Every structure is written in structure tokens, then in C-alpha cells.
Amino acid sequence: MNKASYFSGILAGAIGGGLFLAFLLLFGLDIIPSLVIGLASFAIALAFFRPKKAAESESSPDNAILIREVMASGSAQQAEMTKIARSLPAGTIRRKLENLASLTGKIVDDVRQDPQDGKAAGRFLAYYADTAIRIATMYRDLTSRDADSPEIRQTGAKVERNLDILEKAFKLQLTKLQENDLMNLDAEMSVLESTLKMEGIDIDPNRGGSAGTSQTGS
């Protein structure tokens, strides 16, 4: 239950309970008729105050197109992460990338169940799922040329740190989407971008969600 539904339920309950007590105590009505009036009032108030979320989102052609694009893009990103992970040897980096793929799928599922989250989820995945794919692709290409070297080990350690940062961000974003708490998303994204830049990963929102990757092994 999201916050809007929660508060509409409280308000409807207060109205129903108030009318029940009013008819029972003030007007001297028997308990059963008072209870019937209270329940009926609760049901009417709940229907009146219930937030319109998915219906309004789906009724707009532009919103419906956005939702389909976010789900299609997110599913493609999840598949790409899974594909890259399977091309890597078993180990920490492969496991972390598989975790990110799973979290991407959960974000897509959230959008499917709650279309009003589509815009925020789309923005997040455009930046951070693409970033995860770029980091993993770079590491895969590097290891395919040289299986083991000091540079590979140094790069691997840095990739692990980057994937840890991204995993925390994915988990936080999923929690906020599920709770419909998006107020601080921009601030948190800014902090994450700064952290990744310190690690050599540059996310530029002005490039439509593309991520520029500096030399990770430097």
C-alpha cells in the first residue's frame, strides 16, 4: 500500500468511525444500525478519497508509451547484464553483475505494477543500468585480451567497488519506488554521480543517459 492509499484509508476510517459513534451516542440509535451507517460511510468515503494513480497514468497516450518504453528498455538492460555476466568467469564480479541484473528486473516489475513510477525508474535506469553495462563490457573486453596481470587485478578491484556503489543505488531506488518516496531522488543521484566520478566513471545526464568511462585501470 502506498502512502496516498494509506492516508485515504485513515481518513475514511475516521469518517466512518465518527458517524458510528455519533449515531450510537448522540442520537441514541441501536448499535447495529449505527454500525451499518458507520460501515456504509467508511465505504463511501474510501471510494471518494481513493487516489487515482494507475488509471490516470494509463489513460494518457504519452504516459502509456513512456511506460512501455521504460519496461522494454529495462528488460533489454537486464538481458544485456545477464549476457555479459555469463561471459565472465565465476567469481565476485560475475555475481555482482548478476545481482544488478536481478535488481533491474525488480525495478521493471515495479513499473509494471505501479505505472506512476515509470518516469523516475526510466531516469534511473537510463543513467545507472547503462553505467553498469559499460563497466562490465569494458572489464569483459579487457580480460578477454589478458586473463591475468597486475593491471587486470587492479582493474578488477576497481570494478568491484564500482559495482558495489551501483548495487547500493539500485537497492535504494527500488525501495523508494516501492514506497513512492521520490522526493530526494535528485539529491541522491547527484551524490552517486560524484562518488562514481571519483572512481573514474563519468555520468553525464546531458548526453541522454550515456556514461563516459575513463581508464578504470589507471
Polypeptide structure, described:
- This protein is mainly alpha-helical.
- Helix 5 packs antiparallel against helix 6 (118-145) and helix 7 (150-179) runs antiparallel to helix 8 (185-198).
- Helices cover 78% and strands 3% of the residues.
- It has helices at residues 3-26, 31-49, 54-59, 61-87, 92-113, 118-145, 150-179, 185-198; strands spanning 201-203, 211-213.
- Mean pLDDT is 77; it is low at 205-218.
- It is built from 8 helices and 2 strands, in the order ααααααααββ.
- Strands 1-2 form a two-stranded antiparallel ribbon.
- The chain has 2 domains: 3-49; 60-213, no CATH class.
SSE layout:
Blueprint: H1 3-26, H2 31-49, H3 54-59, H4 61-87, H5 92-113, H6 118-145, H7 150-179, H8 185-198, E1 201-203, E2 211-213
Descriptive terms for the model:
mainly alpha, 218 residues, disordered C terminus, single chain
* Count of individual beta strands: 2
Order of the strands making up the biggest sheet: 1-2
- What's the overall geometry? elongated
Q: Total domains, how many?
A: 2
For the sheet with most strands, the description reads: 2 strands, antiparallel
What value does the Rg take, in angstroms?
24 Å
**N-to-C order of helices and strands:** HHHHHHHHEE
Q: What number is the mean pLDDT?
A: 77
Briefly summarize what is shown:
This protein has about 220 residues and is mainly α. It folds into 2 domains: about 5-50; about 60-215, no CATH class. The chain is about 80% helix and about 5% strand.
